[in-house]
Amino acid sequence: MNTTTKYAATAMAAALGVTVLAGCGGSDDDASGSGNSKASKTVTLVSHDSFNASDAVLKAFTKETGYTVKVLKSGDAGAALNQEILTKGSPRGDVFFGVDNTLLSRALDNGLFTPYEAKGLDRVAADTQLDADKHRVTPVDTGDICVNYDKKYFADKKLAPPQSFDDLLKPAYKNLLVTENAATSSPGLGFLLGTVATYGEDGYQDYWKKLKSNGVKVVDGWEQAYNEEFSGSAGGKKTKADRPLVVSYASSPPVEVLYAEPQPTEAPTGVATGTCFRQIEFAGLLDGAKNEAGGKALLDFLISKQFQEDMPLNMFVNPVAKDAELPELFTKFGATVDKPTTVDPEKIAKNREQWVQSWSSLVVK
After folding, report:
1. What pTM was computed for the model?
2. Fewer CB atoms near the end CB (10 Å): N or C, the chain?
3. Contact (Cβ atoms closer than 8 angstroms) between residue 239 and residue 228
4. Which of 103, 90, 108, 88 lies closest to 48 in space, CA to CA?
5. Cis (ω within 30 of 0) for the bond into 262?
């Protein structure tokens, strides 16, 4: 979701930098080293910081294919994509994971990927295949960027939590919402796009003027917003945060349950399902990849039933494979979003920079 990005790595306390996640099977030659793709037994996945998968699943990939997966984490989704654009033609790895529908046009316009139709794509939901005619990218997961609320705060105040974009403008919710900067954060950009989808190109600016007047707080990224400013998160409780509304994900409540000691029977946070924007994340074979065969095998694996069912409690995203089942904790505590807002990728490509600049001049400057 792209976080990007994305908060799963923070929740899982995943290591930053280069991490070898599966170490069994075959030679340990580095795919980005010798340049001999036939000899290489390592396939390098370049990703934002939130990529995570269980050791057992990645070892299964190694056993099945002979390739060891090496993950190069490169900051949030936007930063990781920028680095690949700068190294276009001489990529740092073989596959890139984490570009989403809000930034997809930048990757495609820069020619970062070699077309490849992954095996098993017929099992993937058609509405996630945004590049179906050329197969430059493969959809891997979806997620919904939504306002989350602190249940205890609203229960104590005997105040119903907001459920829609319109609700956030009401005086009852003044000075309660914290969101991320749309220019620097994937959730922040997704929330902005949600308002564009809801109010149109002629109305979103007026909406943000009203939201600013109602005391919205803007911070640089998700980690600060959720873990430092949001009163409903475990991190926010430690910092004595005072904002009971935050832009996060529909899958954030299961995180609060999974990592709580002891685990509660009810999630401490809820989701305003009328504020959600649908995010789709993709992976692609990097143009100039030294281990093209390994990269193709990894793309096949990313949409396999085994990997797809491993994702929800590792990256807190939804699988795109129609035959993948969600874990009980995810379905019990996560929110179901029936009608998320969306914006056509071509429209995003044409207007994204203008929308972000207008938003920045209205809300940040």
Report:
1. 0.83
2. C
3. yes
4. 103
5. yes
